[in-house]
Design brief:
Elements lengths: L8 H8 L1 H25 L11 E12 L8 E16 L2 E14 L7 E12 L13 E15 L3 E18 L2 E13 L6 E12 L6 H4 L4
Antiparallel strand pairs: 1-2, 1-8, 2-3, 3-4, 4-5, 5-6, 6-7, 7-8
Helix pairs in contact: 1-2
């Protein structure tokens, strides 16, 4: 693998973890198809009452390694991806998440580290009310677990069990929402050192509007 070079982050990531790009492209393409299907289903929303929704999140952030020894070899990088969530109550949503990114190498003597992760997540909005028109606004907390792929300098690429925890606050912006968030990613390995990183980022929420049955059908 080549050394980390300023201005060549994309090429560096492909060399560090070439499978992530292909894997994430396929996953995000699948999520995009699901989003398109969701949009088609939501098209007659003005005339169709519904209590709960399926919404899409697109997010990006800066991952910062905090665990030893990777924090001594890696710098902050970038992570991005998507999630598809379904609500079954005003305060609860379950989702599938797919993300990929990299940590930059420190200086010219450390290589970048690529990673990808697939996870299932549970999101809770503690102050949600049934009368809320949106299902992704206000404060939220999330926990998740899944499978990650991680390329650690000195250990090579391997699959790891992953744990995630996050908190954020969603703000409505017209038909979409914007939610700054703080996330913790934990890549577990029974034979090597765990890798823990914190992420500061923001997500865009799409299709989280619901139609109040009482408003849609006053005589119902």
């Amino acid at each position: 693998m080549g050394s980390a070079l300023p201005g060549g982050a994309c090429g560096e990531v492909r060399r560090a973890f070439p499978d992530v790009e292909t894997l994430m492209n396929k996953t995000l393409g699948f999520l995009a198809a699901l989003a398109a299907a969701t949009a088609m289903a939501a098209a007659p929303a003005e005339a169709t009452p519904r209590d709960e929704v399926m919404f899409l999140t697109l997010d990006g952030g800066v991952p910062i390694p905090v665990s030893h020894p990777v924090r001594d070899a890696l710098d902050p990088g970038f992570v991005g991806g998507a999630g598809l969530y379904h609500t079954w109550a005003p305060a609860f949503a379950a989702g599938l998440r797919a993300h990929g990114g990299f940590f930059a190498g420190q200086g010219r003597h450390h290589d970048a580290s690529g990673f990808g992760l697939f996870s299932v997540a549970l999101r809770v909005r503690p102050f949600a009310a049934r009368a809320d028109v949106r299902r992704a606004t206000g404060p939220w907390f999330e926990g998740g677990m899944g499978l990650g792929l991680l390329d650690v300098p000195g250990d090579g690429a391997d699959a790891r069990f992953t744990l995630e925890g996050a908190t954020g606050w969603g703000f409505p912006l017209g038909r979409v929402g914007l939610s700054p968030f703080f996330r913790v990613m934990h890549f577990v390995d029974l034979h090597h050192d765990d890798v823990v990183a914190v992420v500061f980022g923001a997500e865009v929420n799409i299709f989280d509007r619901r139609i109040d049955r009482a408003l849609a059908l006053p005589g119902d």
